[in-house]
Design brief:
Layout: H1 81-84, H2 103-110, H3 117-125, E1 131-133, H4 141-155, E2 160-163, H5 182-194, E3 201-205, H6 218-238, E4 242-247, H7 256-265, E5 276-279, H8 287-301, E6 308-312, E7 347-351, H9 371-378
Parallel strand pairs: 1-2, 2-3, 3-4, 4-5, 5-6, 6-7
Helix pairs in contact: 3-9, 4-5, 5-6, 7-8
Length: about 375
Amino acid sequence: MVVAASVVVAVGTATGMISALDGSRGSDEAGPPETTRSPSLQSLPLVPSASPSLPKSPSPTPASPTPRKTAGATPRTPSPTTTERKQQPAVVSARLYRHPDSQVLEWVRDNAGDPRHAVIESRIAAQPAAVWFADFTPDTITARVRAVTSGGSALGRVPVVVPYAIPDRDCGGHSEGGAPDLDAYDAWIDRFAAGLGSGDVIVILEPDSIAQSECLSGGERADRFASLARAGRAFKAANPKARVYYDAGHSGWNTPAKQGERLKQAGAASAASSDGIFSNVSNFHATADEIAYDRQVLDALGGPAGLGAVIDTSRNGAGAPADGEWCDPAGRKLGRVPTLSTGEARIDGYLWVKLPGESDGCKGSPGTFTASYAYDLAR
């Protein structure tokens, strides 16, 4: 049974947060940031929702690599550059876009005298992260997406956007919601696509929508996967520069063979709809584990040679908790800073999809920025 760990709270804003920790730390912890500050947009109609919490796994998973058997897949190890990069963490890509409205930026503006201010500002608030669209708002979605993508284009940077409105979202769990049905969802996707503009953009398409589909009947699953394939085609037709990634869960969840087959059914093997897969969204699994897992999933998926993977490294600097705890577990750290230059074959980027400092619901209200949690992750 999948642990229901998600909570959607539309508290108003969502955007970028990344970190940088001392380079002498472990290989999954972030290194010194290359920071720049984005100017405010002239017009920003309705900011996106806060990022939900999505650290789901079928059972408690230890932090050690490859804790489970896989069906028909031989575990691989990351390329040698992983070990070499322990002394040289990736530097944040200047190409990624930091949206200028977020809960953490609001906190930084309002708490200049707080002793945690400098750490949170430099290691989280100054960095880019994904922007979530987690509410079903057909009338405003085009303008809201366009506000983000046009902001990135104006600076020559790449925004990361997350459409999260699939019907039966989270199998009726804590993050239940989304569109009322697939017809409404398809129409919402078309309006989302209309806001993608013509510049570079990365789309993280519906976290959990493929990995967590056991609650659906066979027919319902096929219909969902058809809508996801359609969504990818719509995004690429609207903006050929859009890079669309599909849900691969994470290394502690489905086997690569099972996940690859489902991804194939959802259109992830077609260049007309997909650029590859994403993993570890809102989770804590170590980057090396995700690299090995993603390569196995890509092998199982098949498709064009150019398909790759992006990994959410926002909170995986200390790996996954040994007890499988998902709700703001103690001892976690910010992971590798976001970059589109990983030095790893078939790994297109390390991204911060989950917004560091936004609580899962234990250290603060679900989905809201909690300074004590952010500080613990960043220091």
